[in-house]
Design goal:
Number of domains: 1
Structural class: alpha+beta
Strand order of the largest sheet: 1-2-3-4-5-8-7-6-9-10
CATH architecture: Sandwich
Helix content: 10-25%
Shape: globular
CATH topology: Immunoglobulin-like
Number of helices: 3
Strand content: 35-45%
Largest sheet: 10 strands, antiparallel
Distance between the termini: 19 Å
Number of strands: 10
Order of helices and strands: HEEEEEEEEHEEH
CATH class: Mainly Beta
């Protein structure tokens, strides 16, 4: 796992991790965030009308990715608990364990991927369906994610 992903993990995993996070830039619907307490590690974040918040970060080596989602729909999963999450990009699917966490009192979870193909899907897709182990699904709009990923990488280089 790259140093950037380890840094994001330390910042984003767990209750109250939003403290110290600063707005860095905006790329379309995605906010680019930075944590000065964590070597200026950067990630992208988007809030949806459903109340869901999605965060995505990529390692500088482009071989690893961080994904987090927070929503009231995750109330059944406690912080630190694990569950499986399926990312369905249509003709490409990835599944991994997601670890329960809380963002500003909203439950959710995060996962890491060291598969370069996962990161590549985010750069070329406009949506992904998340399917939880309990059967709940949510379609996440990835419009503009390619530009936002580029902005995250640029901010990491400057950081």
């Amino acid at each position: 796992m790259s140093k950037i992903l380890v840094a994001l993990f330390c910042v984003l995993a767990g209750t109250g991790h939003a403290q110290g996070i600063q707005d860095y830039d905006v790329s379309g619907e995605w906010a680019i965030k930075m944590n000065p307490k964590n070597g200026n590690g950067c990630f992208m974040q988007r809030s949806f009308e459903s109340g869901t918040v999605v965060q995505v970060g990529f390692g500088s080596d482009e071989e690893g990715a961080f994904f987090a989602t927070y929503s009231a729909d995750w109330a059944d999963m406690g912080a630190g608990e694990t569950s499986l999450l399926l990312f369905d990009f249509g003709d490409s699917r990835f599944q991994d364990a997601i670890v329960g966490a809380v963002l500003d009192d909203v439950p959710g979870g995060y996962a890491f991927f060291n598969n370069p193909a996962f990161a590549a899907e985010f750069t070329k897709r406009t949506s992904v369906t998340l399917q939880r182990e309990n059967g709940r699904t949510e379609l996440i709009d990835l419009t503009g994610s390619k530009r936002a990923i580029d902005a995250v990488k640029q901010s990491q280089e400057k950081g």
